[in-house]
Design goal:
The complex is a heterodimer of chains A (296) and B (274). Chain A is mostly helical and 296 residues long. Chain A folds into 2 domains: 2-57, no CATH class; 64-295, MetI-like (MetI-like fold). In chain A, 74% of the residues lie in helices and 1% in strands. Chain A contains 15 helices and 2 strands. Chain A has helices at 2-9, 11-38, 57-64, 66-99, 104-111, 113-116, 119-130, 135-142, 156-184, 188-196, 201-212, 214-228, 233-236, 252-262, 266-295; strands spanning 41-42, 52-53. The longest helix of chain A has 34 residues, at 66-99. Chain A is globular and about 75 Å long. The two termini of chain A are 45 Å apart. Chain B has helices spanning 6-34, 38-43, 55-64, 66-98, 103-114, 119-132, 139-142, 149-159, 164-172, 177-188, 190-206, 209-214, 223-231, 240-259, 261-269. The chains are: A mainly alpha (296), B mainly alpha (274). At the A-B interface, helix 2, helix 4, helix 5, helix 6 and helix 7 of A face helix 1, helix 4, helix 5, helix 6 and helix 10 of B.
């Protein structure tokens, strides 16, 4: 009786969350179940009748797949540069924004424009600017800084750093606003006290500002690892399905896309997807363990 | 460091203005190139256009059928936006105000699902929708995108500041929960709903991955997919068409952005990190 009463009293609550629960079951839980099932199968999307149970073969192949690990190395190379570069740019911008009063919102508005521009457009525009026929290199050639054009898209060591710089341009606005929020929340009395004790500006930054920004740093790192390691569009629009020359532009998700949508090997693609998911989850847990603890 | 002196303020203005040039230059170049004859874009990248031409803008209507791309993208983006605004606010209302038994737990579970990397879903969902025959239908993008945990989180965070007394008073007057949702919660949550609307519209408008997976038929292409496939095949002397397409596809988002800057910036950064 009591249960029926509770359900009746709160029935609208359950009805209102029902859409999310239903959609989550269909497009969240079921795909995960299907994904696990697929890892044990050799399943070609175009020939579903030829499905075959292969045990753990997909897993063994995945762990030994040199291309997959190469793609992972590429994306880590990219993310290390991207995270470090964006961190310094956005922290610098946040400090500058904090110090000024007039035009602050004007600068913020402008700095956010790359964030709202699509990756496809950003890659066309910045790809042109950075390319050998683009304005930047043409100018550098003219003043003699460069001897010849740099075709970075076909020069393996340059591919990931250039993409990282382009992505820093695109995303630093978000991080700057997050840092600005953190800096603004620090009570000015901390600095006044430090000043009385004769602290220098530099000391104040490293002893007060930086440690108190840990929640922001943590949040940004977690987001970067989850989303950054899944980079796809940036490389897809610039290279072929296998990442161009020496696979320098191959990222894990691009590789999974190629296996699934080019070769139609859904079982194997699914296994690599879970493998990448496990790696990302593992890194996220590490971040929680080592950084979050210090935040608290 | 936070001690603000006159020098540090002027230095900040100088740095920020330099930054402004870096940020705005690509946009200015994009607009200039869209009016510049193709051969000049290729061979005189730093020169101002010798003459302004509209051939790029005329060309995209002929060679890219850009109106159809706009139509498709609008249908998908508006559908996802409306579904999210209603379904997410319903869920947020139930969790923050109706507080049914288990709502706390459900919300924690939702936040946990945000940590699941999306790559896990991509192959099985594609396999599933392929078998269902959803490929080449807009519903393959709209239905899976109809709800979003981050949006629910933003709306819940906002609704918690709406006093409970308002709802209690309405309950005493005999209003049902659906009435309270429609007449009190929705109107009062307008700012955060605007944020969610922007976030979902823009996410869908700028997305390449979803359309690339599901929309094979050229008649179904969206703006980003159309632009990507178009940009690789345009001959150099007509390259201004790519730039005109860049401008036209970015413009709707930029226009909305200038009207709703605050909501835009909040959409990405309004997370309580405590």
């Amino acid at each position: 009786m009591k249960l029926i009463h509770t359900i009746d009293k709160y029935k609208w609550g359950y009805i209102f969350v029902a859409p999310w629960i239903v959609l989550f079951c269909i497009f969240g839980l079921y795909p995960i179940w299907l994904s696990i099932k697929l890892t044990f199968l050799k399943y070609n999307l175009l020939e579903p009748s030829k499905v075959r149970f292969v045990g753990l073969n997909n897993w063994f192949n995945g762990i030994r797949d040199g291309m997959f690990w190469l793609s992972l190395r590429n994306i880590v190379y990219n993310q290390v540069i991207f995270i470090a570069l964006t961190f310094f740019i956005s922290l610098g911008v946040a400090i500058c924004l904090y110090r000024i009063v007039r035009f602050s919102s004007f600068f913020r508005t402008a700095y956010f424009m790359p964030v709202i521009t699509s990756i496809v457009v950003v890659m066309i525009v910045l790809g042109y600017i950075s390319g050998p026929e683009g304005p930047l290199q043409t100018w550098l050639l003219k003043i003699g800084v460069l001897k010849h054009g740099i075709y970075w898209k076909i020069m393996p060591p340059l591919v990931m750093p250039v993409l990282a710089v382009i992505n820093s341009w695109k995303w630093f606005g978000i991080q700057a606003v997050i840092f600005l929020g953190g800096i603004s929340a620090i009570p000015t009395s901390y600095y006044e006290a430090a000043e009385l004790d004769g602290a220098t500006t530099r000391q104040m930054f490293w002893r007060i500002t930086f440690p108190l920004l840990r929640p922001q740093v943590f949040f940004i790192l977690v987001m970067n690892v989850i989303y950054g390691l899944q980079m796809f569009t940036e490389v897809y629009v610039n290279f072929d399905l296998y990442g161009g020359v020496h696979h320098a532009g191959l990222t894990p998700v691009l590789y999974i896309y190629a296996i699934g949508l080019d070769k139609f090997r859904m079982g194997y693609a699914s296994t690599l997807g879970i493998l990448l998911g496990i790696i990302i989850l593992f890194l996220t847990i590490l971040e929680f363990k080592f950084i979050k603890r210090r935040v608290d | 460091m936070i001690k603000t002196t006159k020098t540090s303020t002027s230095l900040s203005y100088i740095y920020l203005t330099l930054g402004l040039i870096f940020v705005l230059y690509p946009f200015i170049l994009m607009v200039l190139n869209s009016f510049k004859p193709g051969p000049e874009i290729m061979h005189a990248p730093n020169a101002l256009p010798s003459r302004l031409t509209l051939s790029g803008y005329i060309g995209v209507f002929r060679d890219l059928n850009i109106l159809n791309l706009f139509k498709n993208s609008f249908i998908i983006a508006i559908s996802i936006m409306l579904l999210n605004v209603f379904l997410d606010s319903m869920a947020a209302f139930a969790i923050s105000k109706i507080r049914f038994p288990g709502s706390e737990l459900l919300f924690r579970f939702m936040l946990m699902t945000m940590m699941i990397p999306g790559v896990l879903f991509f192959i099985p969902t594609y396999t599933m929708l392929y078998r269902w025959g959803w490929v080449n239908h807009f519903r393959s993008l709209i239905i899976p995108g109809a709800v979003g945990v981050y949006n629910i989180f933003l709306i819940k965070q906002f609704m918690e500041h709406i006093p409970d007394q308002l709802i209690e008073a309405a309950r005493i007057d005999g209003a049902s929960y659906p009435e309270i949702y429609l007449n009190i919660m929705l109107p009062m949550s307008r700012p955060v709903l605007a944020t969610v609307a922007i976030l979902t519209f823009m996410g869908s408008w700028n997305d390449l991955f979803g359309p690339l997976l599901y929309l094979r038929d050229q008649k179904k292409w969206t703006v980003q997919l159309g632009l990507h496939l178009f940009s690789g095949g345009v001959p150099g002397h007509k390259i201004e068409e790519v730039w005109a397409a860049n401008v036209m596809i970015t413009l709707p988002i930029i226009v909305i952005y200038f009207f709703l800057q605050k909501e835009f910036i909040k959409a990405f950064t309004d997370v309580d990190l405590k």
